[in-house]
Design goal:
Blueprint lengths: L3 H12 L6 H6 L1 H5 L4 H9 L13 H25 L3 H9 L4 H30 L2 H7 L6 H10 L3 H25 L7
Amino acid sequence: MQNPTLRMVLFVLCTVPFWTSNLIRMIAWVPFLGRNGILNSALIGMGAIDQPLEFLLFSDFSVILAFVHLYTLFMVVPIFNTMMRIDRRLLEAARDAGAGFWQTLWCVILPLCKPGIGIGSIFVVVLVMGDFATVRLMSGGQSASVGLMISNQIGLMQYPAAAANAVVLLAMVLLLVGAMLRAIDIRKEL
């Protein structure tokens, strides 16, 4: 996209939903995904289904959907930043060498975006591992996560167990981040 004004407008449009609280954005899914929600009503009205889909809300599906909705921007921004730094002459050279769209994407763009993908992955992994509210609200208490377990232990005043689990969670996150840092050199972006 060559027009910087249009690029900026589209980027701002992507960030507008993130100007509200995570909790509000999560709760906004309930009337959409509920048994008598907008999606089920639309599908029944079109005749696509006979009865409401039960798996849409208070399930692992709704937890994953909420995670994607809540943390997409944390992945998109580093990748966007990396893609903006790609020299256009490299794309022209790939086209001149006879590479098609998919070959250019796979052999030129993707390798050059690895630092942005690495930074975004680190952001998302760290945020998701500590998020217990999304799991609690969107699963209806039917799913579990380490963050939710720690939150429950703190609520029950089981501080030693909560502290031990928090240390284990921290160690796991550090190992994941360390593995990502070894796989992708993010110093190019810094």
